[in-house]
Amino acid sequence: MSHEHTSAHGAGHHGDGHGGHGDHGHLPFLAHHFDDPEQQFDSGKLGIWIFLVTEVLFFSGMFCAYSLYRSRNPEVFMFASQFLNEALGAFNTCVLLFSSLTMAWGVRCAQLRQKNGLVLCLALTLGCAAIFLGVKAVEYTHKWDIGLLPAGSYLAQPEVPVHHEGLSPWLINLSIVPGILLVAFAVWLVITFVKGDKRMSEIAGTLLATAACYFLGVFVGLKFQEAEASSSAHAAHEISVEHDGDTGSHEAGVTADEHAQGQPAESATSESANDHVSGTTGTEAPLKEIEAHLVSLDAPKVVPGAPLDAMVNQKGGAGLFFSIYYCMTGVHALHIIGGMVVMVWLLVRATKDQFHEQYFGPVDYVGLYWHLVDLIWIYLFPLLYLIK
Amino acid sequence: MSAVAESPTHSHSQVTENYLFNTKGFLSWALTLDHKRIGLMYLVGVMSSFLVGGLLALLIRAELFTPGELFLNNKQFNQVFTLHGAVMVFLFIIPSVPAALGNFLVPVMLGAKDVAFPRLNLCSFYLWVGGAIFFLCALFYTGLDTGWTFYTPYSSSSEFGTMGPVVWATMGVFILGFSSIFTGLNFIVTINTMRPPGMAWFKMPLFLWATYSTSIIQVLATPVLGITVLLLAAERVLKIGIFDPHLNGDPVTYQHFFWFYSHPAVYIMILPGMGIISELMSVHSHKSIFGYRFIAYSSVAIAIFGFLVWGHHMFTAGMAEVTTVVFSALTFSVSIPSAIKVFNWLATMYKGTVYLNTPMCYALNFLFLFTIGGLTGLWLGALSTDRALHDTYFVVAHFHYVMMGGTLVAFVGGLFHWWPKMTGKMFNDLWGKISCLLVFIGFNMTFLPQFVLGSRGMPRRYARYLEEFQVLHQISTAGAFVLGAGLFVALGVLIHSLMRGRRAPNNPWGAATLEWQCTSPPPFYNFASAPSVTDPYDYLPLKYISEEEGWVYISPTKSTDPQAHPEIAKS
Amino acid sequence: MSTIAFPYLLADKPETFFFPPKASTFAAENDFFYMALFYIALFFFLLIVVGMIVFVIKYRQRPGYEGDPRPLHNNALEITWTVIPTLIVCWIFARGVYGYMEMMRAPAETIDINVEARKWNWLFEYPNGARDPVLHIPNDKAIRLRMRSVDVLHCLYVPAFRCKTDVVPGRVTQLWFQPIREGTFDIFCAEYCGDQHSEMLTKVVVHSQEDYEAWLAEAVKPPIAPVAHGQWLYERMGCKSCHSLEPNKVVVGPSFNGSYGKSFRDSKGQDVSFDANYVRESVLAPQAVMRPEFVKASQMPSFQGKLKENEITAITAFLQALEDGNISDEEMNAVPAAESTENTTGEGETDSAAQAAEQVSGN
Fold first, then answer.
1. Dihedral angle at the C-alpha atoms of C292, C293, C294, C297, nearest 10 degrees?
2. Nearest-CB residue to C104 (from B161, B321, B344)
């Protein structure tokens, strides 16, 4: 290394327009291969933007799948999106928007060298992310409980009211890891507190609060769900009325039941394919039927909607919607978790007071990433929850 | 002047600062952030992958010597061609030029010390290693036989079990995809922000233009492959049904998703090869490149058009007529920039001084083979002939002419060209040329008959075939072994040079790009100070000095040898 | 019935260096266009290669010769070699679209034949309900195939007709063509579909109109002899794609050769004997009793409602005849006494149908 420095200094004398070459020794945050902080910052900024482009393209695959299947089976999407809890979705949207604010604030703090402000902002952002995940856990597990699963294992019977006593076992399973983390961080906090390591206890405290926020999210989610459930009988009735007509409610339940249990979609399709004469029209016929029902949706009283629900509420119908729902929100949730990991790294560096006017790139980059994750949710929420 | 002054300091600086030996020990390589070492490690990796893929190719050709079963049963044959395709595409061709040669060359050609994100670069290498191991295990232990395209519903059907080879292989592809994205991202940022003062966009060597275009494709297309294979894995594990007709999904959607990446990926493979040829043609003809801007723009044009033509892989898959016609039109639009490049390379030799050494022989070989590969694309882009030729051996021959005759030959040519710079050793030129001749003969013997096989109706991916195709298949098999021998000779020449080769001069070919201004091999810091930038194809001030056995800048104003200067000033 | 003898030619022996026989209306256009492209490509190829060789010889480095390293530019030249290839490519594109449109636009009057592709055989269903693993069509008539797949992607490819179309599960794809000469030509599967992909071959037989009609009329009649009837069903109902007739050869399910009359231990550990009842049960409820080694692979659909009782009996007879591994002609055409008297002409028919089937599967 020493040689590099001497030769770098030697080069400095040549004055070839590369000012700042000899400054390496003075700027500990400047990587050896960059000429000056500006170049380093610009490189990082361009790098993160390109990375964000790849992220957008990554999600675009799923958005394409969404629009393809939505345009092919609009009635499925209309039917299935009713099972998504808009109140929870809206709450999560607000949480994420707020976290974007705190993140942006954190970047400002880093630029102004306000160490405590930065740590606080990062902690708030982490907390919001954890709340988001908690609420999401409640949403997911509720759906798993009632069989709203990806196409292959979809077995929803929406007409059969679901009562579950106490907590869903799925939710408990999902909460094991955050629970362990909660305990671990608490122990760590006590240890560092006893040791009197202020920096470490700051980190441990933040992490503890983050883990606690997950459970806050779960709590809020369950409250919302309860509120929903209290009017659930009413809501369920509404759903069935909307689609089944006044009398068809019971019938629809039976048909859907049969479809989901007794006659898996595979055998149905392969049978119709084997049936040689009608085989060619076999795939067209249900489409026609669906189209007819689509028209009927505008005037629900003319044609009873029961067969439509039966057709939609099966693996290849609503099941496919939930496949797309889980893929999109699942990958988004993974991005949230990834963002949290990076933020913990930032937190550790922030407590070391490493960010200042000249060097705040990492905070800025993570901030950009976080805004993108937020932005993707802003698209997911209306597409999946709101559009009817 | 500088030539004489340089000689005494030369041997000293080479031992202590040479990037190969400046630090020692396994960890100094395993944890290195030096782009040159990472490039070299990549080179070892892709060459080993190529060896695996190549041996599998010989296995396929040997089995096809007779119409019936020779030594592979149907299942084994299908596994072998799947393995051959997957290893060659994902582990060899895609990373070959950008990751191996590109990593070594991009910063040096730019006069920079390293790529913009050295740690990301190392990370991307380890992702490649991890992906490769994942991938190979998946392929070898579980017998993947879907073809490298993983078409649904065959790949999602239940006969492989839930966690079958498809899931392993797709995870491997996913990881390799990340490696590819990070490499591309690194190069884009490096070329954008770390060019030395004076190197405007149109003063960059054409290899950098090609790398830049390639990187754009890598960054934009690979994420789509990522999500595609992720959805495919989810399809198998969770049965999400998006691609499964039994669950109302659509297998053709998978093909669209897959080819949205994999067609641009074809340009990830060929563009850097074209970049290499641009350098080789100019340097070894000792003539400034003809139509610099046209070649540069055509690289970018190919990168852009490359995104719009994926549908030509599905001309027979039952797409709507309008879609098919539009894709055909767009497909033809890619042929124009490629043609422009070929004509410009040809014109570069005009009135130059053609040195017929090994790299140049490979470049000429490329020109011959790539011309055939490109022209036969016309049959496949034209809709009516494609309906006869789609999925036949015609296609097999076409893409081998482009990918292998194009990329592989350019890669080997580039390897010979930059070998002295990378290792500091000269190779045996005569044997290099012999290898080139063997590759030329073997290649044409292998793949020319396949065009005829295709137009006579032989479908691809057939383990058995009808007897009327036998003669052509046998010629092809014989050719494959000549080709294999040629490549082994090339490998032998390179390995021999490591042990017995002469020390390489700084500039053995008389090239004017910046990498030839540092020592061979370069010091670990590349350039002590940013080198002064000249026209990368200006050969006027270079003269051959026989004591040095290499070329040296003689015009005093252009004397920019980076080592010479500070040392002279000090002493 | 010798009139129905197939007009076998030597199948698909290439008639010119590049092409298989021209057997459809598409072939002339395709071959003309192919050769036109060949000469265009040859011209450019020679241009480049000759240029390359001349330059290498003329400007090679040698004592006494020094080239000029200074750059040359010539925009007129650049524009020339951009514009000329562009124009040529435009023509190629237009001509390709023209030919393609012809291949996509089926005439109003077509003979529609349904095609079912499965791993790894083809089944053609004719307008009169006949089903056959070989495609039989009349000469000079427009034929439209409506194709579907029950499992994975396949692709129906007739080199002699110069056309192909993928068969996509979950969709119905179409392919039309009009043969112009009688003969027998190869049909290949051109989309990779697994183990036996390269053996998913069959033939297309182009008959004269009368022969075609005669064939159709006969094809709906199953053979009278139960064993031959069983084989007839074996080839048409899809059994063939999973159960081989060679001893111990496992394609997907167990081989039919020598299975009958043996007993085995099933997946639940019970001893089962392979008898008429077992055959019946396996056809109607395939997954009820299974050999342990096939539990995982069993994709066999139920044939409930698709096979009549007498057809199940015929299949049983066929399996029984295979008990000793091969079927003699006697066994094949043995007709139970009650039926043999009433059908003397039928025997000859059965014979030729069976032979035809054998000839085909022999390929």
1. 120
2. B321
* Tokens describing residue A228: 């929903």
Chain B residues in contact with A58 by the CB 8 A cut-off are: 223-224, 226-227
- Considering only CB atoms, which residues of chain A are within 8 Å of chain C? 267, 269-271, 273-274, 276-277, 279-280, 283-284
Quote the mean pLDDT of chain C.
83
Determine the pLDDT at residue A309: 63
Question: Taking CA atoms, what residue in A is nearest to C149?
Answer: A273
pLDDT digits (tens, 9 = 90+) for A222-248: 988 888 777 655 545 444 444 444 433
Alpha carbon C69 to its chain centroid, in Å, reads: 60
C197, closest residue in chain B (CA to CA): B462
Give this complex's ipTM: 0.89
Question: DSSP string of B208-237?
Answer: HHHHHHHHHHHHHHHHHHHHHHHHHHHHHH
Within 13 Å and on the Cβ side, how many CA atoms surround A384? 30
Would you kindly state where each structural domain of chain C is located, as residue ranges? 25-64+72-104, 111-219, 226-362
Q: Per-residue DSSP letters for A284-322?
A: HHHHHHHHHHHHHHHSTTTS--HHHHHHHSSTTTHHHHH
Whether the CA torsion B77, B82, B85, B87 is positive or negative: it is: negative
B346: chain C residues, CB-CB within 8 Å: 48, 51-52, 55
Query: What tokens does B29 get?
Result: 């390589």
Kindly indicate whether the domain formed by C226-362 is annotated with CATH number 1.10.760.10: yes
Spatial CB neighbours of A165, under 8 Å, sequence gap ≥ 6 = none
> Which one of B244-248, B406-410, C258-262 scores highest in mean pLDDT?
B406-410
CA distance C291 to B391: 38
Q: Which of C125, C129, C148 sits opposite A273 (nearest CB)?
A: C148
What is the Cα–Cα distance from A290 to B124, expressed in whole angstroms? Answer: 49
What six digits make up the tokens of B72?
A: 């592979």
- List beta partners, residue B550: B545
Decide: C187 and C204 in contact? Cβ < 8 Å.
yes
CA dist A125 and A340 (Å) reads 9
Q: Nearest CA to CA, how far is C297 from chain B (Å)? A: 7
User: Are A270 and B246 inside 8 Å of each other by CB?
Assistant: yes
Tokens of A56: 């957008």
Backbone angles phi, psi at A130, to 5 degrees: -65, -40
Angle (CA) C101-C106-C109 rounded to 5° is 155
pLDDT tens by residue, B462-481: 999 998 899 999 999 999 99
The model carries a pTM of: 0.82
CA B167 – CA B234 distance, rounded (Å): 8
Q: What is the pLDDT of residues B292-316, one digit of tens each?
A: 999 999 999 999 999 999 999 999 9
> For chain A, which residues make up each domain, given as ranges?
73-232+338-386
Q: Among C309, C307, C287, C283, which Cα is nearest to C296's?
A: C287
CA distance A255 to chain B (A): 19
For residue B557, the tally of other CB atoms under 10 A from its CB is 8
3-class SS of residue B466: coil
Contact (CB, 8 A) for B104 and A25: no
Count of CA atoms in the C-beta half-sphere (13 A) of B307: 15
Fold of C25-64+72-104: Helix Hairpins (1.10.287)
CATH topology of domain C111-219: Immunoglobulin-like (2.60.40)
CA B392, CA C189: separation in Å to the nearest integer?
A: 10
**Do C25-64+72-104 and C226-362 have matching folds?**
no
Strands C111-118 and C143-149: parallel
Class (C level, CATH) for A73-232+338-386: mainly alpha
Query: Which chain B residues contact residue C194 at CB under 8 A?
Result: 78, 145, 154
Distance from CA of C122 to the nearest CA of B (A): 17
